[in-house]
Amino acid sequence: MSAVSVSLVNVALPAGQPVTLPFYGGSGNLSQAQVNPSYDASQLPPNTPPLADFYFHQLQVGDDLIISHVVSPQRISEFLQAFVHMPRRLILGSAPPAALPDSTGLQCLYQHLLPANQPCGLTITGFPPRLEQVSPTSPLFQKAYPGQFIHALVLPDGRPPLNAQSPGFTGQKCQATLDQETLHLDGRWLWLKDLNQVGVNAAVKTRHTPKARKEEAAFDMDGCCTVL
Questions:
Q1: Can you give the pLDDT at residue 205?
Q2: Distance from the Cα of residue 146 to its chain's centroid
Q3: Which of the residues in the chain have pLDDT under 70?
Q4: Element spanning 30, H or E
Q5: Is 202 within 8 Å of 164 (Cβ atoms)?
Q6: pLDDT for the residue numbered 213
Q7: For residue 199, what pLDDT is reported?
Q8: Burial of 207 from C-beta contacts in 10 A (0-12 / 13-18 / 19+)
């Protein structure tokens, strides 16, 4: 089967420019929201090509946040308004984005670029790891929220990403990797995800496998710390 060719449209939205861009569609746990043909093209930058029925792929906010795989059309519009004070770049495609592996219950994916030599200010606990607390001093304050799961930590030094396929993918392991082992590195990306209840149940279920119980004991689940 040949790969589907996707045409992408890149729409730059300056800081302070409100945009009301309605979306429709979405299916179950798939990111398939499309631009409503009734949208008002006059509020978009000049020379923007027609966007009717194009699929949402990404919203890039500034240089350090990428939002993708959004299932709810309404949330896309909410993100556009919530970050109106920042430059945004909207990426749309002629076909839906490819689904992520291990995406059961995925409602939204957030990729955060972390600064070097600054503690993340996150309390990360559990197996699979999730955010327990976000400090007001965190670079992710008001961008990340308790209850979000860690999807991956992507590092710039060539080592494999830290994710569900990594040995000992626990809150304590993520915390130590972020705030000790790699604190000095530029170019670290922390991927967080929102899950619906089906996804949460699937994620938590991994704790009850023999492998998970062994890793949980080996990494001392109750020893997770808060970095402020």
A1: 63
A2: 14
A3: 1-4, 27-29, 197-199, 202-228
A4: strand 30-35
A5: no
A6: 40
A7: 65
A8: middle
Whole-number pLDDT of residue 48: 95
CA-closest candidate to residue 59, choices 100, 11, 107, 95: 11
Single-letter code of the amino acid located at 164: A
Give yes or no for a contact between 71 and 79, defined as CB atoms under 8 angstroms apart: no
- Residue whose entry in the numeric block shows the structure tokens 């449209």: 9
Is the pTM of the predicted complex or chain greater than 0.90?
Answer: no
Segment holding 31, helix H or strand E: strand 30-35
User: What is the H or E stretch that residue 193 is in?
Assistant: strand 188-195
Q: Any alpha helices (H) in 96-209, and if so which ranges? A: 171-176, 197-205
β-pair partners for 91: 10, 58
Q: Across the chain, how many H-helices and E-strands are there? A: 4, 12
Strands 8-13, 130-134: pairing is: unpaired
